[in-house]
Amino acid sequence: MFLTFSGTTLASLPVLQVSPKVSFDGKVKKQIEEQLPAVCSFSNCTYVLLSLLNSLGYEAEVKGDKVIVVKSVLVKRVKIEGLPSAVSSLRKTVKLLLLGKPFSEDALENVKQLLLLNLRTAGYRDSNVRFKVVSQPDGYTVEIYVSAGLPFIVEKVVVDSPARYKKELLSAFKQLVGKRLDASVVKDLVDKLEEEYIKQGYFNAYISYSCSVVSQKSGKKLVILKIKFVPGKRYRIEFKGNEHFPPDKLKPLVTFYEAKSVDEFEIERSKERIKNFYEDNGFPFVKVESVLRREKDFVVVEFKIDEGKQVVVKRVVPKNYQEFFKSLMGKPFSRSKVESAVAKMRRFFKEKGFLDVKVSYVVLPSGVLKVKVDKGKRYYLISVKVWGDFLNCSSLKNLKLPIVYTEDVLNNIMDRIKNCYKKAGFSGTEVIVNKRFVNGKSKTFVLLSIYVFPGEKREFGFVIVEGLERTGLKWIRKLIVIHPGEIYKEDSIINQYSKLANTRLFSMVSINDYPVDGVVNEVISLREGSLLHAKGFVGYGTDSGYVMNGFLSSTSPFGLGIKYFLFGNYRQKEGYDAVFKMNKPAFPFERYDTSYSIVKKEQIFESFTTDKIFYRFALEREASKVMFQSFGIEIARESIKDTTIHEKNESVKRTLFYFQRYDKRDNVKNPKRGYLIQLFTSFAGRFLGGNTDYWLVDEKALKLFPINEKIVVALREGAGLIQPIRGSYVPVQDRFFLGGAESVRGYKYGTISPTDSNGNYVGGEAYGLFSCEVRYNFTQTIQGAVFYDSGKVFRKGGDFSFGNWYSSVGVGFRYITPVGPLRIDYGYKLKEVLGQGKGRFHISFGFPF
């Protein structure tokens, strides 16, 4: 550590000073000065401050009541000269390794070895690297001088191998002649050839290469590349006695391919894998032997398989254990599944206190599975004594002895003690247990002696935020939830990291602990998100026509800790929307984010077109890891056109809304298990003003059931109700419509709806929706699906019923991209709609639910 004392540490508040020659972050200095009184109130703050400065990369000394920063030990500048263009990408890597890090000889040595390794691999075999280090008060300057030497150029390729292989090898390596000797390229060629020879049966083939300099001219060294190939024996794999499984099924079990060799060890491994495969597929009595024999050009490795009788599990004896094996009944015997069930039995009995339980089994050719259980003695906990627990965290008063003893009982006691001490600031608490067992006639008694070593109590010292360039610290102070003097807890660090990472303001969040003298200084390093980030796509959908999507975001451009979004979505047949949104994390309350949005939107329905512009103010929060909540107010001006619907063409609406999402899916982009529940409620008009009054409730739920690794069943249900208040009305554009790629496939967008006397689709005040989809993952990116959708929109809420719904069945194809699936679905109508045909293709983006 770079700690220098030239005076004595005083109990009074120290003064932080920075030498004029040292470049010191003014934002960090201000934070230290603000936090000094708090840190000095519970610690030797001079020593804690010196430790913090050291961890930030500065040397400091104490003079009287002053702590003076005299030097930076960080690398501030890196210069690289002489690096060939072939390895120019290393510049960025070297700077990442050195810049902003404390200077050390070890770091320089690592950089040197990195450069030399890559230079020599790239054909600069005589390269050299030297450093010039300049130490200044404001940091180190590291100058790196690379002497690459002359590049090695392949003039000729020479092959040392049996004659029959020379032509092929020369052909493979002749592409290197006249080029720089790049070891990575040579290695790729060698690996490719080895794979080819393995396919031909040369499992013990060996290819090596070397080079020798023959001349030097025109600023380069000419070399001969020597390739040596030892093919070894050629092997052929055969199977005998495999009546139920073809060779193509058994060959992948042979280990020669992955080991790239054939020897006694690999033969035994292969026999074991073949045996395990048979035992897992209904043949528990299989025997596998191997024979090697020499033929003209091959050594034949023959695996002789005596499959034995195929067994289907029909019965388990005794019957009282059948529950553990119920998933195996009526299916071919599988040793791994039986072993898994046996392990489950052992856990069951151990949880009941039979710690020495032994479970064995025998399978008979008749399909009977005989299970034998030797429970042994039951364990009872009769005594627990605790030493060193000065906080009384063990809470043994609630432990009514004797009780059945299991490992969980002990673990619960230990976890309770550790967690209790952690909450009190003793993060390094150790709990040691001594067990004594006393054998009774039919029971085993357990006596526990527990020793608690609390260790050192810790508190948070300085909490410093660094790395902010545009954003002012005062605008994100509510995001900092750990403070000097608070009890140090690991949970607090995790909470702090999550709080910062979830804001989307930062592209990097790092929190480092620096313990000293019972205090832990925290340095929070942040990297702000992009000042400008853009993306978009162009596509085509059958319901939507041509689709264009654009997204623009900016992080804290004015230094206020606000995320700005601008995104638009144009759909040729369905309209467009343009959204400007601002999001301010932890404002005005620590647990809530504030968002303000302006939305311009056009929607093209079958019977009308609507234009909307609305302004939305919302408070949002992540209530837990799985629950998101949002509530606020929305002011909108809406109009309808291109229609013969006899309703008001314009309306002004003021709405209070609440949205809640509970998401327990395992993955957002391609979920395979879990569930999602969404609820949206709103109230428009009345005391809020506007010329429409109604309330709305809309809920949706999704449940995913994995059948196996490839098949997932997805169920979706939805229901909504919108009701006018005291004789008011619900504008047509706010009513419910179904049909299209996201609801009941097979029907055109918005055409599942009540109609007026002119045949216009006018929406309804209630709807119901149900879908079932079976998804099959052919690969990680290719997915097929079969589905059933059903739904109906009702003119009035009181009309809701489960009869005569619009339904469709169909098939789908999905290509999974990093941002979600490209989807093609075909839905076949089970209830016809005049003028729409029997079915409909839908090309769209994202899962339907």
UniProtKB/TrEMBL annotation:
Subcellular location: Membrane
All copies of domain POTRA, residue ranges: 236-308
Top-rank taxon, per record: Bacteria
Domain Bacterial surface antigen (D15): 607-849
Alphabetical UniProt keywords: Membrane, Transmembrane, Transmembrane beta strand
Transmembrane segments: none
KW Membrane (keyword) present: yes
Main location, first listed in the record: membrane
Short name of one Pfam family: POTRA
PANTHER family according to UniProt: SORTING AND ASSEMBLY MACHINERY COMPONENT 50 HOMOLOG, SORTING AND ASSEMBLY MACHINERY SAMM50 PROTEIN FAMILY MEMBER
Designated name of the protein: Beta-barrel assembly machine subunit BamA
Species in which this protein is naturally found: Desulfurobacterium pacificum
